[in-house]
């Protein structure tokens, strides 16, 4: 068996958002995902009081992270508002793991692109974002709410976080 490292395509798509299929694809993803969440014994109680618009809001958030329109920042309070939704929720690692697993299951189910480059970018952000959600949800978490919206392209993380 040979393993080949793929060269980037000469006409690379402008963003993971475009490659994923834009807002319609992300809305389909979050609909499928929260359907699974609602049927999951570990996560259903966490989301029991979820706003019916929640899946669409998360799709907009993901869209912005992956290079799409800035709809979450312009209409839903941006990153600070997303952080506020997780404060004090005492999320646990087992719940985070299940969240990631169900999102990837949903991605496969709806046919989100499954090429290694896209999935690497996608899962990298999901690992980062879910771990931040857990950290920010703990009692006494010191959260800087006014952080910029994370931006995830095709590249890598540029190294561990070092406090200023
Ligand atoms: C990349 C990871 C994540 C992203 C991008 C994300 C995004 C969001 C956003 C945008 C909201 C606010 C929705 C709105 O404005 O209506 C929200 C709320 C919430 N998130 Fe997350 N989240 C992530 C991870 C998690 C995880 C791992 C959990 C739990 C295991 C979680 C639990 C919740 C809960 C309980 C709410 C409030 C739901 C409600 O309205 O009752 N999130 N999240």
Automatic annotation (TrEMBL):
Region of interest (Disordered), ranges: 144-164
Keyword rRNA-binding listed = no
One Pfam family this sequence matches: Bac_globin
Which keywords does UniProt give here? Heme, Iron, Metal-binding, Transport
Q: Does the keyword Isomerase apply?
A: no
InterPro entries per record: Globin-like_sf, Globin/Proto, Hemoglobin_trunc
- Protein name per the record: Group II truncated hemoglobin
Give the organism, scientific name.
Luteimonas galliterrae
